[in-house]
Write a structure and sequence with these properties.
The complex is a heterodimer of chains A (919) and B (375). Chain A has 919 residues and is mainly beta. Chain A contains ten helices and 57 strands. The longest helix of chain A is centred in the first third of the chain and has 15 residues, at 119-133. The radius of gyration of chain A is 33 Å and the shape is elongated. Among the domains of chain B are: 1-120 and 246-291, no CATH class; 177-188 and 317-364, no CATH class. Chain B contains four helices and 25 strands. The chains are: A mainly beta (919), B mainly beta (375).
Chain lengths: 919, 375
Amino acid sequence: MSRYRFSIKLFCSSILLLFSISICTAYAQKDNAISVDFKQSKISEVIIDLESKSSFHFYYDPKIMDSLSFTLKAENKSIVFVLDNLFKSVGVNYTIFKKDIFLTKNTQLVVQEITNNPVSQTVKNIVDLSQSVKVQQAVTPNKLYEIGMKTNELKNIPAILSGNLKEASTGKPIAGAVISSQSSNVQATTNQSGYYTIELLTGQNILDIKTPGREDTQRQVMLYGNGKLNIELKENILSLKEVEILANKVSNTKSVEMGVNRLDIKTIKKVPSLFGEPDILRVILTLPGVQTVGEASTGFNVRGGSTDQNLILLNDATIYNPSHFFGFFSAFNPDIVKDVELYKSTIPENYGGRLASVLEVTNRTGDKKKFTGSAGIGLITSRFNIEGPIDNGKTSFIFGGRVTYSNWLLKLLPKDYEQSKASFYDLNIGINHQLNEKNEINISGYYSKDDFKLNTDTSYNYSNQNGSIKWKHTFNEKLNVAFTAGFDAYDYSINSNSNPINAYKLGFKISQTNFKTDFRYKIGDKHQFKFGLSAIYYKLNPGSFVPVGNESLVTADILPAEQALESAIYVGDEFKVTEAFSINAGLRYSLYNYLGPQTINNYAPNLPVTEDNLLSTTQYGDKKVIDTYKGPEIRVSGRYNLTKDFSVKASYNTLRQYIHLLSNTTAIAPTDIWKLSDPNIKPQFGSQVSLGLYKNYSANTIETSVEVYYKKLKDYLDYKSGASLVLNHAIERDVVNTNGKAYGIEFLMKKNTGKLTGWMSYAYSRTMLRTEDLEQGSLVNEGSFYPANHDKPHAFNFTGNYAFKQRYHLSFNVTYSTGRPITLPIAKYYYAGSERVYYSDRNAYRIPDYFRTDISFNIEGNYKVNQRFRNSFTMGIYNVTGRKNAYSTYFTQENGVISGYKLSIFASMLPFVSYNIKF
Amino acid sequence: MKNLFKICFLFAIVAISSCKEAYNPVVTANNSNLLVVEGIINSGVDSTIIKLSRTVIIANKTVLNPETGATLVVESDANETFPLKEDLKKGTYFALALNLNSAKKYRLKISTSKGVIYLSDYVEVKTSPVIDEVNYEVKSDGLQVNLNTHDATNKSIYYRWEYKETWIFHAKFISTLEWDGNSIVPRKIGIHECWGNENSSKIVLGTTSKLTQDVIFKSPITFIPSTSEKLSDTYSILVKQYTLTKEAYEFWQNLKKSTESLGSIFDAQPSQLTGNIHNADNQQEPVIGYISVGTVEQKRIFVSKDKFPNFRMVYPYECMEPSIATIKSPGDAKQYFGDFTSIPIENAPTGVYASSRQCADCTVRGTNKRPAFWQ
């Protein structure tokens, strides 16, 4: 039997033919009566049966019809009766023309339109038909989208709907959006590639879609069975105000996780920034529970954790130094970053290896439809980025770079540093390739380099290098997996070559090769499983001191490289017990192997780790397991909704950290070194219990929360008094295992919509440390609790943005915090030929409180759609009140006299302007 | 656009004020009257000198606060006692050669005038090996003084050095005249050439703990920049060598770190100091200082000017060429030189050439008496 298969294109272009067909419908003939009995039959079976029982020939597109099944029992009925009952309920139109029957699948409209409407309307619907072949693209909230294998029997049975949530203009996936059904109270969250899967009941569903940083919207679906629906969202400026939809907001009161902050780049860009350079880390610092020791310092402290206890991920790559130039700028390019998530309480079980938090920075994927880019000129840095498709809509790239000319900035530093030089640059690249519906590959790379010289002949430089590849595969609506492999490195070096005899280079490097796999598996409506495993191979060169040039007399001192393997396996389940009560239980088991080749010092047990108690050393060969640490980590959190917009959450976390940053300066300095746990340095262990209340007001436009937490730290590494950490061949003798506790209460109020947006936070928190183990030798402060360097009990932040009009925004930022603790000289005396100072107990005093207000004004160019370039202008003032906030205080001996100094980094108002162009 | 950019750029720079300010925090006076004990118990034939003082609050103008009227006794672990006497110099206590037994351990007992007793830990006697050589290197930017020593028994390991520098220097101008209070007369004792001297004010340490042999080779003692007046003529340095126990070494190193190298952004945080002297009744009371027992070795070298011919010292004061002081009557001379701020240099046609004291009188910052040891 010959069958004419429609090509879609041919079908679309054969308008006239169809038009004539529709006219010919009137000539439909009666044929002999037939009997049929179909049970969930495929179209091919139906057609074979009907063609054998009648003289008609059928023409149809199997691509469209294959998804349908048909059930009908009829005895001696006319072909018209049979066709009506078979096809009408599933939206298939039939057209009888002489002895041929054409089957077309479309919405019900087609039949009406083909028969009743003028040509142009028909054209439109036939074009629509062509699109319905692919996964439907749900663009507007007002249309009903039909999903699944249509049967003429419609029951309320569970069915799975899945698809991608994308931005309409660029085709970029939207992650973290919450999709929920109004009728069955289920919800799903889109993953990093915008993919979602949700279990609904067949029939009509209204889906609410809540996306961070966007207005809420909805889509209507008629669900017949399992199916796919890609949802496209338009940018805010194009969407209409839909007041009634705001009432349907799902929100922080509904999610199980607690202590999570999500910020998208739009929000970040609204916060006034130093020199007009949007800075992710500075915005993170306005969140409750996040602090920094000083203004120009690298790193941040989350809930009393030290700076090395944050896992900072950029597209799954670990960034060891997240700052440029002493922390004046963050290492992340704001033109490339899409959004930022900070986990400070519930650390998902798929993350591990750090105690305090996970900061996940995600870059955008390139625009798949057209080439775009932007360039910015600020006082300090210039930026450029470009993105676009590589091949027809499947592959895209994004590239961004920043470079500084910040030498003049150093003039802002105290006079001692004014002869200094500094420069940095960073590069980001991302490639996204959508192999097909089920497979997606992302490649991303990052490189940063800093170079500076501080008024001496010594130059410092450091660099981050990261590369990763990720393959995401969807098995089906229920199961998907992501494989990630990557390489991360950080190194620094210090060079001095003014004196050829003493010329040296001091170097440090850490690198890690990692692999992980993450599965997501959904069982029914109630369970969402996560499981996977990860492995990280560390290689660390703790320090090398080598001569430079032929004349140098410096003797080389190279500490042996360290190797370790950190592996973990995890499983977790988000279990919806009832509508109001959800629980997320996860378990991670981590295993750490310290590997050879290495020489290990063996100390006498139960005695202080000192040179005197060194018993022997042991040599270990290559790849030999020297020591193993392991243990389970528990991640549990739960949510109970008291009312729809009021919930209580609790969580308990335990974590292990096998890598330590050794620093006895106040902030992360480029000279700090990382150290792997070894037989003499135990891993750190932390546990946190937290409780939170979440309440939303005014139809969820105002989110409020209160969280309390109590944290315990074990075997955190602090340094002994006067320890030297660089090129130390027996570092274990200079550090001391410290135990600590941190507790606090955090208040947050956030307004996401309206003319005035922003957030306000207050936190009371304490972080206390103690060395109690007498085996450690000398105890800091005689073994009593002392405040950690970043213990700042009161912290208040206000960040607001007021939009006068669409194009004019005024942003402001107010920060207050207690001054950080310092060890002060409290007395002076004459000793060994000089006046000297006597210091207080460690961290017994505090520097003056910190207060700063920033303001900025942003003007966007006009929004004309066809404009080739779009401009925006930002101007503002950093530290409006000109308060001379102390960065640090220090006392120094000058010509035998002790003088105290307060060092302020930005001691006065600092106006700035920046200009951006988008093309 | 570009103009606006420039304007703001400039404005940003102008608006920056100085960022380093004097800082004097309010600190309670609780802990600011601590006992400070300095000195070593000399086990050899030299005298033992111990200085006692009290700390003062940071804001105090003077740091000198000697502790007088105390009774000091050196005790051995075999119950021998060796009393010290209070010197005329306030807060200084001494004993002549103690000739201690290096097999025993000794401690210092201090009874203050208020009756509070402080005891040091018992410490072993560390006998210093002789200094093999004090040598120097002439570098492009100055003179590096180094030291060699060794201990064949491998016992010394930890070293501390003190030094005293002495140097010849000259006033900018040669004064052949002087104001004797009544009139200008030819100068009797020259004030052009003097000897300056200075004690070490930085802690100098060295160790061989990481070496296979107890050999100190070219350990840096001090560095004198080529522009220093110390190198304008013959230079001499006397280096004293102490050997320390490991604990004493750690104390000195800690003291050095926490009082000498703070202030830049990357420096280590200061830390507390733990010495080996304690209040007998209150172990918690901090006492500053570390008592060591041992011998002292010393060595002097001279470095003559011809060893560093390229060094060009910078005179420490701005000096204008001598100007003519017109003297028509004795009253004029008194007006010029009566307050001793100006010095007559030599005769001029209408009076005398005169210069400021700093530029013509070397005794402002040294002595014109030749030291006894000077070659």
